[in-house]
Amino acid sequence: MKKIRTAVIGVGNCASSLVQGVEYYKNARPGDFVPGVMHVDLGGYHIRDIEFVAAFDIDRNKVGKDLSQAVFTPPNNTARFSSVPFLNVRVHRGMTHDGLGKYLSRLIHKAPGPTDDIVGILRRTRAEVVVNYLPVGSEEATKWYVEQVLEAGCAFINCIPVFIASEKYWQRRFERKGLPVIGDDIKSQVGATILHRTLVNLYLDRGMPVDRTYQLNTGGNTDFLNMLERERLDSKKISKTNAVVSQLKARGLSIRPEDVHVGPSDYVPWQKDNKLCFLRIESRHFGDVPSSLECRLSVEDSPNSAGVVIDAVRCARLALDRKLSGALLEPSSYFMKTPPRQFTDTEARGLTEKFIRTYGRRGAGRASGRGKRS
Predict the structure, then answer these.
(1) How far is the C-alpha of 109 from the C-alpha of 272, rounded, in Å?
(2) What is each CA distance from 345 to 72, 196, 284, 303, 337, in whole angstroms?
(3) End-to-end Cα distance, the chain
């Protein structure tokens, strides 16, 4: 069974959960139920077929360490649910650009020395899929890394709200290079966004309008600390808001901008990687009689998305196997908050299952002759 040679940009909590998850489920049987993963065997690739070959960070406490050690190095504070053996993957000094905001700089200090040769490392390690876990608001750093990924010839999975897969310019760049991209902004297994979308669709399915709604989130990881810098929050708010409002637009409905508020709200250090979400929907019954719903969701933030990334990595590899290029519409629609095109989550899952059946290793004959997907 061929491995999926994977590199990660940013060795924070999300990378920690991803690395732990691959180890935790390495002996899962194809018929097992694994929370947060579509299939143990996805298109012919097992969870354990993800092999980490390169990692990049700027934290002086992580650079130079083996990835198996770096994922447990503070300020990482997510749940430790699996030991990780020595991986023989050294964390390399990455590019900073706008990746380190004023609040993060109180916890994280840059490693000395210049940025390592990212393209050279990706080529030397024969990396095939690169996962972007940079901090929210890292617009310039993400675009810089995308250029390195394109030059190195790798597939790209953009887990943060910088718009790459959803932008025509970058879609065309990946198409010209014959490479696939999945993005943008990872959607957790059952997180604030998916819950909000589901509740909005429930109201609409039952013939009730959404007059006003909010989603407020608090947490104690570095992502929430970083987003105290409000100017870094713009793309995150856009991504999370559009993920919800798109469900109204799909039915020809609208909501005034002042009547919807979606986004991270505050940093509470003692919450660590626990994320609290507070949702409210205001609506009307028959006769315009008022109705409202409020709920509270508590999740461990980083493990909540790790299984989704495991599936995204394997879908990216299927695309490489079948020589698909550009933005992968189906996986992006199910795995990401801001894909190139929005669907309901039920539609998106069906499209992604079809993608897996069509391009899976056992479906090679059916997939011949397919080109770009955007």
Answers:
(1) 20
(2) 33, 11, 25, 20, 10
(3) 29
112-118, Cβ contacts within 8 angstroms, sequence gap of 24 or more: 112/60, 116/56, 116/92, 118/56, 118/92, 118/94, 118/145, 118/148, 118/152
- Whether the Cβ atoms of residue 115 and residue 311 lie closer than 8 Å to each other: no
> Checking DSSP bridges between strand 260-267 and strand 212-219, what pairing results, if any?
parallel
The CA-CA-CA angle for residues 155, 75, 48, to 5°, reads 40
C-alpha span between 261 and 109 (Å, rounded) = 34
DSSP classification of residue 325: -
- Looking at residue 234, its pLDDT comes to 84
Contact 329, 374 (CB under 8 A): yes
Q: What is the pLDDT of residue 368?
A: 30
Which structure tokens are listed for 82? 């699996």
| DSSP per-residue letters across 82-136 | S-------BEEE---TT-S-TTGGGT--BPSSPPP-HHHHHHHTT--EEEE-PPT
Bridge partners for 293 per DSSP: 281
User: Alpha-carbon dihedral of residues 123, 126, 131, 135, nearest 10 degrees?
Assistant: -40
Amino acid type, 156: F
pLDDT in tens, 281-292: 999 999 999 999
Q: How does DSSP assign 280-303, residue by residue?
A: EEEEE-GGG-EEEEEEEEEEETTH
Question: Residue 214: beta bridge partners?
Answer: 261, 280
* Mean pLDDT for the chain overall: 94
Is residue 232 a contact partner of residue 107, using CB atoms and an 8 Å limit?
no
**CA trace torsion 359, 336, 140, 142 (10° rounding):** -40
Instruction: Concatenate the DSSP letters of all residues of 332-372 into one string.
Output: HHHHBSS-SS---HHHHHHHHHHHHHHHSGGGHHHHTT---
* CA distances for 121 relative to 56, 131, 306, angstroms: 10, 15, 24
Average pLDDT over residues 182-186: 96
